Amino acid sequence: MDVPVPASRTEPGSGDAVKAVSVVGTGTVRIRPEHLYGTRKPLYWWLLTSRQWTPPQAINVYVIEHVRGLILFDTGQDRASVTDDGYFPSGFTGLIYRRLARFDIGEQDTLTAQLATLGYAPADVDIAILSHLHQDHIGGLPELADADLLVSADEWGELSRPGPELRGFLRSHIQLPGLRWRQVTMEQANDRELAPFTQSLDVMGDGSLVLLPTPGHTAGSMSLLVRRTHKPTLLLTGDLAYHADRMPRPAPPLSAAAASSPTPRATSSRSPGNTPAWSYCPPTTPQPPGGCWPADTGGHDASVPEHRHHRPPRRRGLRVPG
């Protein structure tokens, strides 16, 4: 697959380039209510004293079938986090992770198993975009040795700051041998449809997949705008918010901390308040027909999965930004 290095053209482009968007689950997570809804209590106070858990929240991966290849947005949670006693750090840092979240990840919830439900294998993935580098977004990395991994340069820089594990960055599960990381930097956007965003990155060079900077949850968090011709535009938001109903418009939303971050905080982050046509898709969106998906799947024969009609050709040699 030979794609020009993007120049942040970010014009609407050809929405027909995106043939299908699917959501697959890599298990569920329960977190503290204070984590989900916010609290005035000091962080470590509620984290160490809270006795309640939320209902299970989905840990999703978005699978985008583009005419020029297969793209993932985030990679889910690693099943090793529930099967390997040495997955998390030891000592106080490990205690924080154990108090933070409880995962339920079965054999059927691995990235490999979930891609298989769509007729794919990890080796079919050309690009995996990481919204940010917390544990419930990097879990599929060990399975993606053949893919180009896109992460913002600001997010990658967090790994070099002091105490990354206490800030939710498990370096030993990110900086794995053999992975092809590509650090990307946003460029000036000239598309009025993206306002109030002034920077973006056109991933495929055709305007169909556009990265937008949404810092707040982490310094380098990114969201992905997915444009199609005859279907709603989707905004895949990473952990900008847990649920679409927690992203008020036109006011900017608050960035809720992810289940994977031991240092949650609520900070304001940019929101496209003048774009009501965008469907917001957080990582916890319910499987079809719930969440942001009804408008996306409407009009299709549910008995015939869309990906069976639009499986993209396998093309190696993809040139990616970074």
Number of helices: 9
The CATH homologous superfamily is named: Ribonuclease Z/Hydroxyacylglutathione hydrolase-like
Shape: globular
Secondary-structure class: alpha/beta
CATH class: Alpha Beta
Number of domains: 1
Low-confidence segments = 1-13, 248-276, 294-310
Q: What percentage of residues falls in helices of 4 or more residues? A: 10-25%
* Strand proportion: 15-25%
Give a description of the structure.
This protein has 322 residues and is an alpha/beta fold. The chain has a single domain (15-296), classed as Metallo-beta-lactamase, Chain A, CATH 3.60.15.10. It has 9 helices and 15 strands. It has helices spanning 33-37, 43-49, 80-83, 91-100, 111-116, 135-138, 153-157, 294-297, 306-309, and strands at 18-31, 57-66, 69-73, 101-104, 125-129, 148-152, 180-184, 187-188, 199-202, 209-213, 222-226, 234-236, 254-255, 267-268, 279-281. A 7-stranded mixed sheet has the order 4-1-2-3-5-6-7. The longest helix is centred in the N-terminal third of the chain and has 10 residues, at 91-100. 47% of the residues are buried. The model is unreliable at 1-13, 248-276 and 294-310 (pLDDT under 50).
